[in-house]
Amino acid sequence: MNRLELVIPTEEYKQQILAYREEFISNSDSLDGTAGLHAAETFEEWYEALLDNSKEETKREGRVPATTYLAIRTEDSALVGMIDIRHRLNDYLFACGGHIGYSVRKSERRKGYATEMLKLALTACRELGITKVLVTCDKNNISSARTILSNGGILENEIIDDDGITQRYWITIQ
User: N or C: which end of the chain has fewer CB within 10 A?
Assistant: First the structure.
């Protein structure tokens, strides 16, 4: 039985999403896989952009179509993480960002949620017709590398840039 379910964000989750954002900001953490939540001034601004970027015909300039999910714990409906699936790759995503970005709130880390979230996201990728998925992480992020490896990731290479070293993993979906 899954402890989590992936849910498309709706206004019903507004307060949980804002609390999630605040937890990351107060801990100086990176809000990965959140469709730009860190940069949004309001929930409404973020939500409008999320909806726009969910379709090829309405995506904003410089973006690719993507589906963003909330990882909701089934036992209490709490938001523990967010995960973003990009439907295709542009040059930047191919080099550094990959098809999937994700984050788990600090208060819920080290409980196996990231591994479960990625597994669920890979199922969603299959439904989108993505059969070879690129997932990346910073070389120093050992937990993320373990998450990717436990979901079948195979390290292709490492990219060195001004921000450090990005590891690029491919996961083939059966």
Answer: N
